[in-house]
Amino acid sequence: MTASLLAGAAAGIAAAVQAGTATAVALVAESFRRGREVNAGRDGLNAFVSSDEDLSRALAASAPCGGPLAGVPVAIKDNIATTYLTTSCGSKMLQGYVSPFEATAARKLREAGAVLIGKTTMDEFGMGSSTEHCAFGSAKNPIDPTRVPGGSSGGSAVAVAAGICPIALGSETGGSVRQPAAFCGIVGVKPTYGRVSRFGLVAFASSLDHVGVFGRTVDDAALALEVIAGPDTAHDATSAVRESPALRHVARDLEAMIIGLPREYFPASLSAEMRDRCDRAIAALRARGAEIRHVSLPNTALAIPAYYIIAPAECAANLARFDGVRYGVRIDGDGLVGMYEATRSGGFGAEVTRRILLGTYVLSAGYYDAYYRKAMQVRERIRQDFAAVFASGVHALFTPTTPTPAFRFGERSDPYAMYLSDIFTVTANLAELPAMSLPIGRVTGLPVGGQVIAPKFAEADMFRVAYALEAELGQAAHR
Amino acid sequence: MSHGRYEMVVGLEVHVQLRTRTKVFCRCSTQFGDPPNQNTCPVCLALPGALPVLNGRAVEFAVRSGLALGCAIRERSVFARKNYFYPDLPKGYQISQFEMPLCEHGFVALASGRTIGITRIHMEEDAGKSVHDRFAGYTAIDLNRSGVPLIEIVSEPELSSSAEAGAYLRAVKEILLYAGVSDCSMEEGSLRVDANVSARRHGEQALRTRTEIKNLNAFSNVERALEIEFARHCAVHDAGGAVVQQTMLYDADRNSVRPARSKEGSQDYRYFPDPDLPPLVLSRAYIEGIRATLPEFPSARRVRYRTDFAVSAVEADLLTAEPSLGDYFEVVARGSGDSKAAAHWVMGEVLAARNAAGAGTGIPVPAEALAELIRMVKAGTVSNTAAKTIYATLVAEGGAARLIAERDGLLLVGDETSLRGWVDDVFKENPDEAARFIGGERRLQGVLIGLVMKKSQGSADPQKLSQLIGERVGR
What we know:
heterodimer; A: alpha/beta; Amidase signature (AS) enzymes; eleven-stranded mixed beta sheet; B: alpha+beta; Arc Repressor Mutant, subunit A; 3 domains; three-stranded antiparallel beta sheet; 39% helix
């Protein structure tokens, strides 16, 4: 009974717990049983950096059972602060670190009745697209464990895709929720910048960072986003003064909706299979009543270079606090500077170090105008590209989430090749737009995702498209 | 001296702590002197995941400071990160303002008639404190000060002597005290000064290489340090050498200036807009609303005191040095109807009593009570001597001047019976002096009056007494 409940919708779990036909404690037990079944541990899928069944049972026993997520087991990315378990950001720098305060998104989940079952594996501080840059080992794709689950929120995607929990929190700076969602065959949502408070999300690049959600279905994701969204201006100055949107009651048809296909997202290099899955999804959108329109976002090619200037610049400053002085790792060295050097060289992995160096460089005197200022100008152009398309009457855009399905471990050892796997997702972070990925089928047996991008704060329209597409594709979404 | 050929060029950077109850980006207390690290939270400790949220009161005080110093206030200003590593800087960057500061183009008018330009005033947060001498072999960090709101006031390099630098600092401090934005206490670190100095030939237009002097913990030290450093520049120039741009530290104990060990001056702070804080956008109405609440500033007040209260220039300077003292004086002057006496009282007894009570305490004795006391002196109800006794009682116990005078028998006694009684007693007790006085030795009158005053505890009406004693000569 509890097993089938856990395999079902989050809303169904909450309803059963609210009605008293299931308990949060039993659901937690089932979640851990499922974890063992799929071998989610360190030697297996390695979905979690930290988890503790006794602790989760205790949390479940005291969880409120009247909320919209009553008794729903949830996994939270290891860079979102929780007062239980670690908040180590997948980094040796913060190994074993427990936060004395709780992120707003985590608090809202808890208050809605959700129960934390683990902190998930991630690329160190969110920097990566595969979880290969996690200091505690990478997570594995449950569909094909020889392949990456995507990243950086890979562990959260694995937990949901493997059926351990229906909902998980992730975060993204350039696609770190949508890309692993696509690779693992689930739904991943990045809301509008400011829609969900960043308070408690350990910063990578503040102007691009978002808390996002994973769900097995569009409805699971909608439910989770409804819970965590909303203003939090007392804790996050970039939080938008917008009440949480009603997402679960949007229309399921697409009558009178215009959906744009930006040509830059369907390059000639896209594989025939990938294109075919996209075409099938586009046909499904049409079948639900949408008008399909070809559009252009001409500055798309500049997105990756701009992103890899802005994100490292912000990262270099945001990660300066990890200096060995107050918390986390301290490695002694010769004097103060020696301690700084030893701590930061020893505490950070290669990718984080690379981005800190890059970010420090682009902000240096004499280079600021050439790099950072120019990148910010590019970012503005990318915003304007989207604004022009949406102003022309297009309600939402449809694109593939990634150019390819999940790649093998070690396959993208060249950092730049790895960066390019985010090519279709970074634009929504740069433009602060809501975007989500949902399964649209498989390519060579591996899941691929379709992406819906909407205007700022138009999450309701975005979910309308997603609900319709999910319903129209039915089981085809997983074939 | 050789440096007679040179002119001093000084620009000052003044850091002022704004008088908010809580820090600029979190809600921790700004209380000075609390136990180390008591006033800290995830934000000012820079714990992972914490974010800054701007304190509106700090913005209000910063705008107020800008307006008080004649600045244009930007309706859109931007917070920036100033990046450097130091153990008492928890985030590894200081939130400050760089390209778009809140206030620009201000000025301060000096008493000399010169006007000194203010380049900019920007908001920033304070760092914590490194304590090097508390634990042997260790540096301790106190982050109570981390995140305390500051403004940095940057002057144009237009000050041309150490005395003028001192005058500028006193004027800035006075204006900020009047604006009510800061305590401006150098002892508590709520006002700090860095001085940029260079030397050039008289008449030369271009600026020569400057050095920056830090660790200036009193206005007098600023002046001393400037003289020392200026003399060094002159000597370098005279010897045909080149001044090296660097940071210097003033040592108050040795009264010397030496180069700082770190190459702080050459650091690249890699400023960029802080993505955690949206641009600060202020409406015209908000700014004008603050302008409307600005008080009268000391220069205007001094002019008014001289005309309305007929006090001297020196008195006007003293009375307007602190806004609260001036406010007090005005109430006393109006309430007593005698502005001259009010000025003397405020500059004398009142300041002495306030200083005796210690810094940070308010002015003792309500202004209305002092006004009543002065009215009583004027009306001849109490003597000047008695008034001082009554004032001391007011300081110690509070109460009303008239009631104290009655209770303590300090009202001037003018009725003949009482006066005659005291005079008779004195004459009896001092037969020798009495006889000589009666015999015509008039110079003894003062002595006898003094004795009667003493006997009456100062309550004898001196005029009537003088008359009474005078009548006894030659009797």
